[in-house]
Amino acid sequence: MENAHEISLQEAIDLTTRYRANQPAGCSLSETFQVDAIEKLISAGGCKFLRIYFGMKENGNVVTILVAANEDNEDILPGPDTLTTTEPVILEDGFVCPPLCPKPSPLNS
Fold first, then answer.
1. Which 8-state DSSP code applies to residue 91?
2. With 70 as the cut, is the pLDDT of residue 2 above it?
3. How many domains does the chain divide into?
4. Which residues contact 71 (CB under 8 A, 6 or more apart)?
5. Quick one: pLDDT at residue 82?
6. Is residue 9 part of a domain?
7. Which residues contact 66 (CB under 8 A, 6 or more apart)?
8. Concatenated DSSP letters for 28-86?
9. Dihedral, 10, 11, 12, 15 alpha carbons, nearest 10
10. How would you classify residue 59: left for phi > 0, otherwise alpha for psi between -120 and 50, otherwise beta?
11. Is the residue at 35 inside a domain?
12. Which tens digit of pLDDT belongs to each residue from 38-84?
């Protein structure tokens, strides 16, 4: 399964260009997450996958929610309302573009 998710730069350019041309209302161009947050997420015991869910804020803006998943394809989740350094984590609140956009690249301009 090596390279199972890799695509070429041109494929990525085509996908992001098509998205920008047809961007749904309430959807951002991108979200950026800090590496230390991703490392904490994937360090959960038994993590084999990174899963991305789509959610919606009360104002209608679409956001991404990142969770770890195990080899049985099950989400690895913390307890309800738990934010500790020892529990698995769920990530959201990436840096949303706009307004916090990356510098221009072939994938965003």
1. B
2. no
3. 1
4. 46, 48
5. 62
6. no
7. 33, 38, 41, 50, 51, 52, 53, 90, 91, 92
8. -SEEE--HHHHHHHHTSTT--EEEEEEEE-TTS-EEEEEEEE-TTS-EE-PPTT---SS
9. 120
10. alpha
11. yes
12. 999 999 889 999 999 999 999 988 999 999 999 999 999 988 766 65
The pLDDT value recorded for residue 85 is 58
Q: What's residue 83's pLDDT?
A: 63
CA geometry: angle at 3 spanning 39 and 93, to 5°? 35
Which position has the higher pLDDT, 1 or 8? 8
The answer to whether residue 55 sits within a structural domain is yes
Strand partners, 100: none
> Which strand (E) or helix (H) includes residue 92?
none
Is 105 part of any domain?
no
Range(s) of the domain holding residue 90? 26-97
What pTM, to 2 d.p., does this model score?
A: 0.85
